[in-house]
């Protein structure tokens, strides 16, 4: 049997009554894209199945950590670190948009994860006076969303699996798959 993987998706759709495409981030666990298709549909019921994938990755590595999916019943080694998702938002003069930078960070706390996010080039170089942040007015960046991945997995997935982080990630970085992918092609 193929090993279970944590999937990270950038989903898109144009819900009824909206003028532009909307996006959301979704995490789930499975063995393949096809195997998690129903999880995606269930996540965004207002889309009535008219969802597409704009980006996805199987999360194997985050920084120096290897990520493994284990059964919920399996005892984990004492893990002081957790996997966090951060969605940074910022602005550029003359652009009618809020830019976003999505990242995964392994840290022992939300505070440490936020501190690490503030070291990114995006955080340091996006924003200007008048479009300032509620976290750090100097840079004009805000953290729109931040959460621990284990907390936002679908309830059925959370009851079956847990994420285990181990120091010593080997191999290449996770491959980012970008571009329009309708669910009908899964």
Automatic annotation (TrEMBL):
Stretches assigned to the DUF1543 domain: 18-68
Pfam families according to UniProt: DUF1543 (PF07566)
Superkingdom per UniProt: Bacteria
Protein name: DUF1543 domain-containing protein
């Amino acid at each position: 049997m193929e090993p279970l993987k944590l999937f990270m998706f950038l989903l898109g759709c144009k819900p009824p009554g909206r003028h532009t495409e909307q996006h959301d981030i979704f995490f789930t666990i499975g063995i393949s894209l096809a195997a998690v298709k129903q999880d995606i549909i269930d996540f965004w019921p207002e889309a009535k199945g008219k969802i597409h994938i704009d980006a996805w990755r199987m999360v194997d590595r985050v920084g120096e950590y290897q990520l493994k999916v284990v059964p919920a019943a399996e005892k984990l080694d004492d893990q002081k670190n957790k996997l966090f998702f951060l969605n940074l938002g910022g602005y550029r003069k003359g652009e009618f948009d809020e830019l976003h930078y999505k990242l995964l960070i392994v840290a022992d706390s939300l505070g440490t994860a936020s501190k690490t996010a503030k070291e990114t080039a995006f955080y340091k170089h996006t924003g200007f006076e008048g479009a300032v942040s509620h976290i750090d007015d100097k840079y004009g960046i805000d953290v729109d969303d931040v959460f621990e991945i284990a907390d936002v997995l679908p309830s059925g997935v959370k009851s079956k699996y847990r994420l285990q982080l181990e120091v010593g990630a080997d191999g290449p970085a996770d491959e980012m798959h970008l571009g329009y992918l309708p669910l009908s092609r899964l």
